[in-house]
């Protein structure tokens, strides 16, 4: 009887072992695909932003910060692949485990924060055109981006607390008060950083679309670009962030009910959707293209074949964007919605 109880206890404590090796092997190969596609894509985007587009001169500092967050995420994928292929959800080394969660929380928070800032920028420049707004002022200051990163740090502290179990959460084991507070804070941060930005995003989208319907035909080209920006961010949220938040809520509910069989399934669904969320490093370049046609033109002229350049750049000019020449020799366009 005592032996069975010990096995049950071990089962409860060994919660970071993969409940189904086949599922995690498949997820590891999916992450390999994300890494193989994401690494060259994000390196090429970094190259364009730094050497061709010169983001600091084109008021695209917030976009550059999203690139940095995406690149850091891609760099972490090989570690996750290694763990999944060895049948565990995280490293046995507590330091590695906590650092991985710390970086994932930080990168996810940064990506969401800067995507929402971009959406707010479009909102203010469309719905409140002509008025001074803090976003328009902030985007001209590199220091603001540093402050955003620093503000995100306190939200990642729960992953570094000594009493924090990397894969533990409410309902798993009997917790101390400090442990319970840490877990609660982590879960609150996880949901707030997705739900509140999504509400803001929906509001901005509705207001911009409403503004578009009221404008005359001649002004609609600029507004359509703004709609494309916020809709591209909606797509990123709908694919990468919302599903894993819903799966997390279901997992916590099942765990509190102490339903081990259902929890094994919920864990696999949650981890699968978390792996899907890593595709934001592949989807974010769509946001860059919609946000700034200058970046798009610089990217096309650098990496696309000549025959494709002509078609894509001709299509872009047909959308009513204004072309200028950068110091790097690449063709860039100002964005009327941002630049006033």
UniProtKB/TrEMBL annotation:
PROSITE patterns from the UniProt entry: G_PROTEIN_RECEP_F1_1, G_PROTEIN_RECEP_F1_2
GO CC term, one of those recorded: membrane
TM regions (residue ranges): 27-49, 61-79, 99-120, 141-161, 188-206, 227-251
The keyword Membrane belongs to this UniProt entry's keyword annotation: yes
Keywords linked to the UniProt accession: G-protein coupled receptor, Membrane, Receptor, Transducer, Transmembrane, Transmembrane helix
GO molecular function, one term: G protein-coupled receptor activity
Keyword tRNA processing recorded: no
Topological relation to the membrane, as annotated: Multi-pass membrane protein
Domain called G-protein coupled receptors family 1 profile: residue spans: 41-288
Chief place where the protein resides: membrane
Cellular compartment(s): Membrane
Family: Belongs to the G-protein coupled receptor 1 family.
Protein name, entry field: Hydroxycarboxylic acid receptor 2-like
Species, as recorded: Stegastes partitus (bicolor damselfish)
Lineage: Eukaryota, Metazoa, Chordata, Craniata, Vertebrata
